Amino acid sequence: MIIRDALESDLPAIIDIYNATVPTRMVTAELEPTTVEARLPWFREHSPNQHPFWVAESDGRVIGWLDFKRFLPRCAYRGSAEISVYVDEKLRRRGVARRLLEEAIGRAPSLGITAIVGLIFRHNEPSLKLFERLGFQRWGLLPGIARLDGVERDLIVVGRHCPARQGATSASDLQKSRPLDSLESFRGQLNDPLNLMHTLMQYRHESIHSRLLKVRDKHSMLHLDVLILIYHFAKICSGSIVEVGAFLGGATIAAAFGVRDSGKRKVLVAIEQGGRLKHKRLGTRNILRDLERNLARHRVSDMVTLIKGHSFDPATIAAVRQAVGSDEIGLLILDADAAKQRDIGCYRDKLADGCWMVVDDYYGPTADAKITPARADVDALVATGCLEPLGFYGWSTWVGRWRRERATEVVR
Ligand SMILES: C[S@@+](CC[C@H](N)C(=O)[O-])C[C@H]1O[C@@H](n2cnc3c(N)ncnc32)[C@H](O)[C@@H]1O
Question: Which atom of ligand 1 lies nearest, measured to the CA of 251?
Answer without folding.
Answer: 8
